């Protein structure tokens, strides 16, 4: 276990109540979350996140820790207590994980816009890094292209078609001059925590955070308006509030 240079709490393991918080925390696609606490009100709660098997093939875990610390330094992330070989231990942030029914509310999407804008103003030291989008897409495609089954239906393009499409996207989207800023890159509903007592939202899970096209971060969030279980275009952001309350 390697300690992060941030204050670390003292935990007495024989007093801890360990519980998979399935009612309050959902298991992520790439990890499992455990809450550790003694007090019933969870006032002393810390979170332990254990990485999923082989997720390091897609997620740069060292970069995730750097992003965590960077966001914490700008008041956008909880305290990171320590890291270990296959996970993290960090501060529990009180609040409610939002759902598709929440993020369309004007009072909440204004708060989301403010927090996103704050993160987008974080600047790198020195020259501006290249957008992470193309590296991530290339890495993912390299991992999965050998797994594409030729016997799948005609709706699944062949590898050669996907490679040409990726090249076309990079050629054309790179010319749109969207600013390259620090992005969360994974703003699905459950990664947004609303604290009603403080009147703000905070973003969690920084596995994919990094410098990217600003338009991607905004567009990806809008893509999450309908949730991930149903593809319902009618649940996307309405043009009027989007234009009126610009991100």
UniProtKB/TrEMBL annotation:
Superkingdom per UniProt: Eukaryota
- Annotated EC: 2.7.1.82
Q: Name one GO cellular component term.
A: cytoplasm
GO MF terms here are: ethanolamine kinase activity
- Tell me, what is an example of a GO biological process annotation in this record? phosphatidylethanolamine biosynthetic process
> Where are the bilayer-spanning segments?
none
User: Quick one: which pathway?
Assistant: Phospholipid metabolism; phosphatidylethanolamine biosynthesis; phosphatidylethanolamine from ethanolamine: step 1/3
UniProt keyword terms in alphabetical order:
Kinase, Lipid biosynthesis, Lipid metabolism, Phospholipid biosynthesis, Phospholipid metabolism, Transferase
Q: Which family does it belong to?
A: Belongs to the choline/ethanolamine kinase family.
Return the protein name: ethanolamine kinase
